[in-house]
Design a protein that fits this description.
This protein starts with a helix and ends with a helix. By secondary structure, the chain is of the alpha/beta class.
Length: 416
């Protein structure tokens, strides 16, 4: 069957005749582009996700328990030396890689362009976020006498801008041979009637499938195969927007090796029981991050015998995996979360519609939803002011101002 007929049959089967009508109005080049896109989309998956938006989520009876962690500040000298030695061996033998999730735009910061291209006003002259991350990795390379492969995940929306920016700035002195840029996956946007939206480019409108798509994107882009070929055993995955992110931490790596687990993370203690952050726990015997809205208030305030919050380990998007773990997760289907958002689209007359109210569903998975595929993980508590300075909002908490203050304070202390 030819590609066009196959596309038309799919559209008919899934009640997307508005796209069939559009096909008939396009010139040959645009028509072929849209046909290729239709043949690549998993319509069954999208319609299943759409059907789920009409169902009430069943709250299953979950057994929630606290999760053990180690506090970096409370490790004995001997423990820390043992963990650091194990971690150092992996890094020095070239078995470690870093992935930066950099698919987002700096819209919330009032910045036009990818978030990594935002310039933080530090030391008067400023530093780009990508520059800060590159410096962080260069310092680790020098310390451990190696060059760590750096994988940067972009999105279709910001890939070209990111590549152009990094090339223009000569990758901030990082060896280009060790940098690989790959794109995260996308999923179509669906309106409340189950119809796929059409973009200004006269294609089906898609949006990034969330940071949980990192695993499958690593596999589908060939990066995972490349890592295995290079003999990489451990991969750190972190976000682009934390300017105090320690991407190479021999202590965390050593703990994961010693504990013989496939995943590890860092946490910071919750500022107070009501802080709106996801926290680490175990649900039905498996590691999990539970969103603040899902944790009963009584549990959020519970304390252990040391007076510490039982559910006080906040997620700072600082995760470590074995290559085997990434491969396993990349073949699984993660839970998709839906977000009801405002999205402009082209209607059947060819006119652009800019809605005033949310009109469509975006589907995304989260990186930590994969933790439940494992029985255990290692968790290391670190100091917030040393490792967590996110740049998310234009003003207030987690803004360029708070990140600048934390960054300058930390490096001033390090130089003393």
């Amino acid at each position: 069957m030819d590609k066009e007929q196959n596309a038309i049959d799919i559209l008919k089967q899934y009640n997307q005749t508005h796209i069939t009508n559009l096909l008939n109005k396009l010139d040959e080049e645009k028509k072929q582009e849209l046909i290729d896109q239709i043949n690549k989309i998993d319509f069954h998956q999208i319609m299943e996700l759409y059907d789920n938006t009409k169902k009430n989520i069943e709250i299953k009876e979950n057994i929630i328990e606290s999760i053990p962690y180690l506090d970096k500040l409370k490790l004995s000298k001997e423990e820390k030396e043992e963990y650091d030695k194990l971690g150092k061996e992996i890094i020095q033998s070239g078995q470690y890689a870093v992935v930066t999730m950099a698919g987002g735009q700096g819209t919330r910061l009032g910045h036009t362009g990818p978030k990594g291209t935002f310039k933080l006003d530090v030391y008067g002259k400023g530093k780009y976020i990508f520059e800060i991350l590159a410096d962080n990795l260069k310092e680790a390379n020098e310390k451990y006498d190696t060059t760590i492969p750096w994988y940067i995940m972009t999105s279709k929306e910001n890939n070209k801008q990111t590549v152009d920016f990094l090339e223009k700035n000569n990758y901030f002195g990082y060896n280009k041979e060790y940098i690989t840029i790959f794109m995260q996956g996308e999923l179509p946007l669906v309106d409340t009637e189950g119809k796929l939206l059409i973009s200004k480019e006269l294609k089906i409108k898609e949006a990034s499938d969330g940071n949980g798509g990192t695993y499958s994107s690593l596999r589908e882009s060939g990066c995972l195969a490349e890592m295995k070929e290079k003999g990489i055993k451990w991969v750190f995955i972190g976000g682009v927007d934390n300017v105090l992110l320690k991407m190479v931490d021999v202590t965390l790596l050593g703990i994961a090796i010693k504990k013989q687990v496939q995943i590890a993370s860092k946490s910071v203690v919750k500022a107070n029981p009501k802080e709106k952050v996801g926290v680490f726990c175990k649900i039905n015997g498996h590691p999990k991050i539970i969103e603040y809205a899902e944790l009963p208030e009584k549990m959020a305030e519970e304390r252990d015998s040391q007076g510490e919050l039982k559910y006080g380990e906040s997620n700072i998007m600082c995760h470590l995996f074995t290559v085997e773990a990434i491969e396993k997760i990349s073949k699984e289907t993660l839970i998709y979360h839906r977000a009801f958002k405002k999205n402009s689209y082209i209607d059947e007359t060819g006119k652009e519609v800019i809605p005033q109210e949310p009109n469509s569903f975006k589907f995304e998975s989260f990186i930590f939803d994969a933790f439940e595929f494992f029985d255990d993980m290692a968790l290391l508590r670190v100091k917030r002011e040393e490792e967590f300075a996110p740049v998310k909002n234009k003003e207030g908490a987690d803004s360029p101002k708070t990140a600048k203050d934390l960054y300058e304070k930390y490096w001033k202390k390090m130089k003393i």
